[in-house]
Structures are given as C-alpha cells and as structure tokens.
Specification:
This protein has 380 residues and is an alpha+beta fold. Helix content is 20%, strand content 32%. It is built from eight helices and 20 strands. Strands 11-12-13-10-4-14 form a six-stranded mixed beta sheet, with helices on both faces. Strands 15-18-17-16-19-20 form a six-stranded antiparallel β-barrel. Strand 17 and strand 18 form a beta hairpin. The longest helix is centred in the last third of the chain and has 13 residues.
C-alpha cells in the first residue's frame, strides 16, 4: 500500500513567538497561523478602539521588474497599473480569460530609486499566491519584465486601530502624516528597514510593515512595547475575519471566486476598460458589464439577524418559501452585538429594508434585515 505524506505546514518567522504567547494555531492555506491568543471578541474590540498587532507573513509577495513591468501588469491584471504613481498602491484583480476572478490583489509601485524606476510588488492572498505567480509568469511572455517569487523574502506585520499611528510614530521618523491611504514608503521602524504601507483589511486606520524575516521578532517586540500603554494586543486570524466582515470587505473563496466576475461581485469599478492595450479577460468582462447593467445578477448585500442564531457560508437565503440567495460569510458581530452575514441575493430582494427575508439555519427560517454594506464605517 502506498501512503501519501501530508505536506508539512509552513511556519512564519514569528512562529515560536506566537506559541510562547499561548496562541491557538490553525492551518490556513498550508501555513500554521495564529487563530487567536485569548478571546477573539476582545482582540476584535481592541482593534476597533485601541490597536491590534497581526502576523500576515503568509501573504504572497511577487515582485515585477524591468522596462515593461507596467505594461505587463496592465495586460495581466484588470486595473490600470501604469497610472499608479511611485509610492502608491492599488486594489485590483487578476482574472481568467472568461472573466472569472483568480484573486484580488494589492499592487504597490515601489518608490523610484536610481537603481530602479518601475518596480512593482504584487501582494496575493496566501491561498492563491502560487496561482497568481504562475499566471503572471505565463502572461509575461513577450514582455521585457521579470516576475520574481519573493514570498520567502518578506515577513509582514500589521498594526491596525485608532492608536496605530501613535504607536508607529514612536518608532520611526518616516513621514506617516504624509503617507496617504493606499500608499507605501521605505523607512526604518525600530531600527529595522521596512516598506511601510497604509492599507488594511479591518475598516480601521493602520499600517503594514514588510521586513526581512530575520527582523520580524525584534520588530514585533518593539511594537508590543511601544503599544503597551495604549492597549495594543496581539491578534489572530479569527478577529481579522470578523473585522473585515463588519467592514464589508470581500474574502477570496467566499465573496470572490473563479465562478464570479468582478461585476458579479459588485466590484466592476476595479476593471479599467479605458486603459491602453488589451488585457486578459477584456472581452468576457465587457459582456459581464453589459449583463450587470441591463439585468443585474445576484447582488452582494449585508444581512443583520433579528435573533441570535449565526449564519454560515453556504446557508440559503429565503423569501416567501423560495431560495433567493446564499450566505458567503457570517459571524457574530462584536461591534453590532448581533449575528451578521454577507450574501448574494436576487436583485429583487437586494434593497436595504426588503421585508420577509430569512436565512435557512438547519431547517428553521430565521428573520434577517437586508442592509447596505459595510456594516461598520469608522469616523474620520
């Protein structure tokens, strides 16, 4: 009999530190990652009111360099990457020829130096990093550009929450006040060289720090010490999921998949038909845009429970005894104090306040209110 060995889970540079903090670990996209350190509700509320520290080293960094780097990315992705200024970032997607979403991405155009004028860093979801790398490599044929797998070159730490600017300012002389949302600049944080980015996946202000793996532990410890007086806590993937759900942010494999185009997901704005040249999926996406304009498919909406039962991905959304949609993500909301969900529902039932909508939870049709996304928006 032959036996198939289970592939060993990958560990981040902070693995021993997570275990020393008593983290509950979980397998995520082949990585051993911290799910929570204590109470996921407390971690969630810390990010909403103070600050949280995350290890996101499982994300997939891919560097694209060379004279044709911008042209390649314009061809390979649906966004207009050539228009991204140095030091800025853009949310975009990579699609198949049939318009299906392979992944959603953040692309950074790294600040220009004498050595390089057009270097880009593509950050893919952990579960899709290899798929994105393979697609970019394949699509680079004929372009004077190099696609490089840099997943092992970076550890990625994130500080999120209203106290995060103050925490980071105490450790760096980089111009954080001048760092706009969806931008990045090179700097030194606690003596560690870093790319400091201001994006995030929590609905709060915050920063991501791309550093060499050998610097991850010292940076984590410096951030922990700097945040001690203002309530910073280590946070796992569990609260990251409830934070992004409250903020109405899509998660690949839930709200996004190869079965959906960006227009099906309500994110058609990321597709830039006006950019120069052809791009992979253009004709299929033009057809999808026309369909969405004339006869919208199912629409992504928010659902808020009237009761206490929690909906989960895959549960049916119902109205008048008929299935009208499907839950994509659901969880108790620590901020709202009620269960919430995102779901794709038929357009006829998608308006906020639509009456008579429920979720089939193990045979019981639990009442839910249809609301506009996001569930939570921070005050600026």
């Amino acid at each position: 009999m032959s036996s198939t060995a289970t592939p060993e889970k990958r560990r981040t540079a902070l693995d021993a530190l997570h275990r020393s903090l008593g983290a509950t670990m979980t397998d995520f996209a082949g990585w051993d990652m911290p799910l929570r350190y204590g109470s996921e509700r407390d971690e969630h509320l810390a990010v909403r009111t103070k600050a949280g520290l995350f290890d996101l080293s499982h994300m997939g960094e891919i560097t694209v360099t060379g004279p044709d780097a911008a042209r390649l990315l314009n061809y390979a992705l649906v966004g207009n990457i050539a228009s991204v200024g140095p030091g800025r970032a853009r949310y975009t997607m990579i699609c198949r020829a049939d318009g299906g979403i392979l992944d959603d991405l953040i692309v950074y155009r790294l600040a220009e130096t004498e050595a390089a004028s057009s270097d880009y860093m593509v950050v893919a979801n952990a579960s899709n990093a290899q798929v994105v790398l393979d697609a970019l490599t394949e699509r680079s044929d004929g372009f004077d550009a190099v696609v490089r797998d840099d997943r092992d070159a970076y550890a990625l730490l994130a500080v999120q929450g209203p106290e995060s600017p103050g925490i980071l300012k105490s450790l760096t002389d980089a111009d954080l006040d001048g760092l706009k949302y969806y931008a990045g600049l090179p700097g030194t944080v606690a003596g560690v060289p870093a790319l400091i980015a201001r994006t995030g996946y929590t609905g709060e202000d915050g920063f991501e720090l791309f550093v060499k793996p050998e610097h991850a532990v010292e940076l984590w410890q410096a951030l922990t010490e700097a945040g001690e007086g203002v309530g910073l806590v280590p946070c796992g993937l569990s609260c990251r999921d409830t934070l992004r759900l409250e903020a109405g942010m899509p998660l690949y494999g839930h709200e996004l998949s190869t079965e959906l185009t960006p227009f099906d997901a309500g994110l058609g704005r990321v597709v830039k038909f006006e950019k120069d040249g052809d791009f992979v999926g253009r004709s299929a996406l033009e057809a999808a845009a026309e369909r969405a304009a004339s006869q919208p498919p199912r629409v992504l909406v928010g659902l808020v429970a009237e009761g206490r039962r929690v909906p989960r991905a895959g549960y049916s959304v119902v109205a008048d005894g008929q299935v009208i949609g499907e839950v994509t993500s659901g969880a108790p909301s620590p901020t709202l104090g009620k269960p919430i969900a995102m779901a794709y529902v038929d357009a006829a039932h998608s308006a906020p306040g639509t009456a008579g909508v429920g979720v089939d939870i193990r045979g019981s049709h639990e009442p839910y209110e249809v609301v506009a996304l996001p569930f939570y928006k921070r005050e600026k």
